[in-house]
Amino acid sequence: MYLSIKKEIEKIKSETLSENEYDFNFDKLIEPSPQDFLNIAESYPAFAEKRVVLAEDFDDSFLNDESMLEVYRSLSENDFSNFIIIGTHYPPGITDKLPEAIKQISEKHKNFNIAVELGNTEYSEHLRNAFWQSGIPAFNSPEEASAAMAYLIKSSKIQPSWHYSVKKEPALSFEGVVINPESSEFLKEFGFKIPLWGWIDVTDLKSLPYPVVLKVYRADLIHKTEQGAVRVGITNDVEALAAAEELNKKFPDGRIYYQQMVKGHEIRLGFVKDESFGAVVSVGVGGILTELYRITSNYVCPVTLEEAISMLKETKIFELLSGYRGRSVYDPQKLASSVSALSEWVYGKENLKELEINPLIVNENGLYVADLRMSFE
Questions:
Q1: In this model, does residue 295 exceed pLDDT 70?
Q2: Which end of the chain is more exposed for a tag (fewer CB within 10 A), N or C?
Q3: CA-CA-CA-CA torsion sign (351, 357, 363, 365)
Q4: Which residues contact 139 (CB under 8 A, 6 or more apart)?
């Protein structure tokens, strides 16, 4: 979302929008107190267009979380819907608890917020990040924030429908090639699911969620199937013991884990950093349909929801998930949303060279990551 807003700012700078299209009429308040804002909120005509309250030189009673929230709540209740929040963290100042509190009020009234936190200090950066993680785009200049808001007002037909959400940033510290099964957990933040799995204990094989697949984890087993480190279709503890003993014999220094088998459409989803184009996302049909279609769609990251939908349509995946010969059905737009969200995350990870989910199994219950491989610098 941050990248999208930055692109729109560039459109404004390149005169895609003329100045009179984002020029506003201002009501100006000099040295207002919280009560001054409350008074104007109570008398403000809700239907007024292109009308903005501009406040300067607040008195000290305004510069804290409680007063800011009191005014924000009152303005929201009086049909103000779009806010540029410019705070200060100088004493007494706002705190990093303000963004989340604003978010809670905003969700009730369906507001759209943009924040400004001036400065390049460590704490300024911390506050900007706090706003972003609460779903509020934050800039370090009023000019950028105003331009972004101007474009949103111009381009949105139904302002109350505006919504911005932020996925929780996964805490990762990976290096080199990453293939261990525990590394997949962060993908849940992007709408993916992880099949039930666990490390094998040969003394307790009856409790496994059959049918299962047995796999071997070892740092150099990057392509497990080709390297003979996978056993599929295991339906009971007797078969599990035999498969585990066979894999232990072949890979004595490996560690065996089980994964519950999931049925559905198999899809290949990958990201790679290209020297010419940067991060590129690739989507294609997997499994038994790979040879039939031989179609892969490649787009430069980050991709929008609309672009992700186009990728699925180009590769026949959209058609398959919408219902093809009675096979499992899953909303293709939900898959597109996850692809788009993950593409933004990949785009922002400078040390990530490659990420591949193969296969991604899709059925009526969700998007299941059967295997993940990542490569970091």
A1: yes
A2: C
A3: negative
A4: 114, 115, 116, 117, 128, 145, 148
Cα-Cα-Cα-Cα dihedral sign, residues 326, 331, 335, 340:
positive
The set of residues, in sequence order, having a beta carbon less than 8 Å from that of 344 and lying 6+ positions away, is 1, 3, 301, 302
**Residue type for position 141:** S
**How far apart (Å, rounded) are the C-alpha atoms in residues 115 and 45?**
24
d(CA 73, CA 51): 19
3-state secondary structure of 156: coil
pLDDT one-digit tens code per residue, 62-96:
567 787 788 778 777 877 777 888 776 555 567 77
For residue 253, count CB atoms less than 10 angstroms from its CB and return exposed for 0-12, middle for 13-18, buried for 19 or more: exposed
> What is the widest separation between alpha-carbon atoms in the chain?
80
Mind listing the pLDDT tens digit for each residue in 230-281? 999 999 999 999 999 999 999 999 999 999 999 988 999 999 987 777 899 9
Per-residue burial over 4-19, b = 16 or more CB atoms within 10 Å of its CB, e = otherwise = ebeebbeebeeeebee
**C-alpha to C-alpha distances, 106 to 9, 112, 139, nearest whole angstrom:** 23, 7, 19
Q: Which residue has the tokens 């525990």?
A: 182
Q: How many residues does the chain have?
A: 377
For CA atoms 219, 222, 228, 233, the dihedral sign is: positive
- Picking from 357, 365, 371, 364, the residue whose alpha carbon sits closest to that of residue 213 is 371
Distance between CA atoms of 158 and 138, rounded to whole angstroms?
Answer: 22
Cβ-contact 295, 284 below 8 angstroms: yes
Q: Which of 264, 257, 307 is nearest to 283 (CA)?
A: 307
Placement of tokens 């924030």 in the chain: 145
Residue 351 confidence (pLDDT) above 90:
no
pLDDT score for 335: 96
Write down the number of H helices and E strands in the chain: 11, 16
For residue range 187-233, what is the model confidence (pLDDT) as tens digits?
998 999 999 999 998 888 999 999 999 999 998 898 888 899 999 99
Residue 29 has pLDDT above 90, yes or no: no
